[in-house]
Amino acid sequence: MDLDPHLKMIIDRYATYTGSDPRRAPAVLLTIAFVESAFGAWHIKGGIGQLSNALQTRCQDLGVKFEFNSRVTEITVDHDRTKGIVIKDKTFIASDLVVANADAEHVYNNLISKNVKSARYEREKLRRSTKSLSGFSLLLGLDNSRGKNVELAHHNVFFPQNYDNEFEDVFNRKIPVDDPTIYICAPKDDSMVKSVNKESWFVLVNAPRHEPDSGWDWQQNGDIYAKKILNKLDGLGMNVSPRLEFLKYRTPADLENYAMAPGGSIYGTSSNSAASAFLRARNRSKTKGLFCVGGSAHPGGGLPLVGISAEIVANCIGKA
Ligand SMILES: Cc1cc2nc3c(=O)[nH]c(=O)nc-3n(C[C@H](O)[C@H](O)[C@H](O)COP(=O)(O)OP(=O)(O)OC[C@H]3O[C@@H](n4cnc5c(N)ncnc54)[C@H](O)[C@@H]3O)c2cc1C
Known about the structure:
The protein is of the alpha+beta class. It folds into two domains: 49-129 and 270-317, 3-Layer(bba) Sandwich (FAD/NAD(P)-binding domain); 133-263, no CATH class. Helices cover 31% and strands 18% of the residues. A hairpin with a 3-residue loop joins strand 2 and strand 3. Flavin-adenine dinucleotide is lined by residues 71-72, 101-102, 106, 135, 137, 204, 255, 259-261, 266-267, 294-295, 301-303, 306. Residues 40-114 form the Amine oxidase domain.
């Protein structure tokens, strides 16, 4: 049966929400379309960062102590049992329970010693998995007094002529997408703009991971790619360039640096096969006392699943 090409593009889009290639991902990912149409899309006033702020406040009310800007450089394990963590290469904090929210690849390959036998199984699983795609994003501040604005919805997706080419570029050719699908979030939220007549947009396109040795090196030419996306937006009639007041772009290499996600993978591993779910990091590690939570652990990436991951781990550990 020939499927309407526009419907095909919309259907293909959902697999990318898990960092996967729609030509290979299981059809079950289409349930996201049902969730979106049945329950709608929701916006938190002030942006998604407000969720972190609310969580922080709630945790502090419950007595949680935060140590910000403190990189964990080791998860200390002795006889396959967690003993604590080391921060900034010098301060040891003892604990027989460690919940790791960092990317599982970072946890098992960088934070736990290669000699820990109980970590070998997870390392091997992660090695066999296909990594999720990454993203190139632009944060735009627009001043509508400089040019005519365009009415947009909150969520907007602009598809290219040839959607398959995007997945060839991202997963096979491993090059920045020449004619990418462009997602624009244009919130109509006064608390997210500097003043009246201004807009703040989040623009995202799918991108290959940062792999200087075997794929694309995103440490270079990010500015050229950002310009290319701006030109495409202008070509789509968005009239961005004359209104542009602020621009910040983030490449997959930036993502790798600030979120410590190897290659800048957005969702840890992809769902590019029916077996992918089983290659994701377990919540309860074989290393006793270690729990993995978040986008690269079971059940997967994206905020809803990350919340479920946290619930599973909280239930595994139980009340203090
Ligand atoms: C551009 C972009 C767009 C996205 N869009 C959506 C979307 O529309 N909807 C959706 O549901 N999801 C989206 N996601 C995915 C979503 O953001 C992730 O699935 C989610 O943030 C993962 O949560 P997490 O807690 O596992 O990891 P993170 O949010 O990455 O948090 C992990 C934290 O651990 C810190 N960390 C890592 N290693 C260390 C260390 N050694 N020491 C100390 N700290 C460390 C990192 O700095 C980071 O702050 C998007 C992601 C990106 C990058």
